[in-house]
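Weekly structure sync, notes
Attendees: PL (lead), two postdocs, one rotation student
Agenda item 3: pending single-chain targets
PL asked that the sequence for the first pending target be pasted directly into the notes so everyone works from the same version. It is reproduced below exactly as submitted, 296 residues in total.
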Amino acid sequence: MESMRDVRSRIKSVSQTLTVTSAMKLISTAKLRKARRRLDETVPYFEAVRAAMADIVDHSEHAARTWFDKRARKPSRRIATLVITSDRGLAGAYNAAIIRFVEDSCPSGSILIPVGAIGKRHFMKRDYVLMEDFSVSRKEPTVYEAKDIAAFAVDLFLSGRVDEFRVAYTNMISTVKQVPELIGVLPLEREALAAARPISRRARAAKEASGSYSYEPDEESVFARLVPFFVKGVVYGALVEAFASEQSARMSAMDSASRNAGEMIARLTGSYNRARQAAITAEVSEIVAGAAAQRP
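Predicted structure, written out during the meeting:
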């Protein structure tokens, strides 16, 4: 049986763990709210870019032919997948789920572009080709980080080094449900651009009045300049969704850990009280026995 000193030591240790898990839960909650708010603030900008691209495609398919190239004549398509994981654990099954999803979706020998130290370390030990790796801020992903990834993806596609660029990330359906998803980015899909919508009544009114926009110097040049912005928006959205999913998973994990720590402290406190009561009883018995022995 553990001594009272051992039980007190365990209670102190578990209490310290409870303090850490509670603090991590609060931090993840704040990060989650901030990331979702930042994404909502940037959505109108990327929606405007997508709306302009959709308008060009509607009026001139020739201007955008390069970006819709399926390259179906090639015997084997080279597909690069951006895999978004986290840099640290303590997030439940978040990293394990996206890694398992990528392994099921990408056969051995596939080209991967990892984001996050955990995914990078895992896939380096597997039969995959890691073309490049990117890191993002632990505080929250930024548009500038998404810009670097988007520029790299566009360069890969235009140079012909890859025929397709995809993004594997974790979509936060709710605070208790995160689902890994795989979306195609390049070549462009008409359905994705068709989802564009004007961001204001003024924009809709201007388009209805003019019938169509005028693009200078030409539609093809403007479309080529807009594509990196569009890719940046998709990558940034995936980064933020993955970051939000990570924080949500960490919140759940820390909440469960805090609850378990509280239950353990309650059990240890009960054990300590029983051990203390037993010690007091033993001392009282010794005193009574000593007093009885001294009686004539």
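Discussion points:
- The two ends are 38 Å apart (CA to CA).
- The first helix runs from residue 4 to 59.
Action: rotation student to compare against the earlier draft before next sync.
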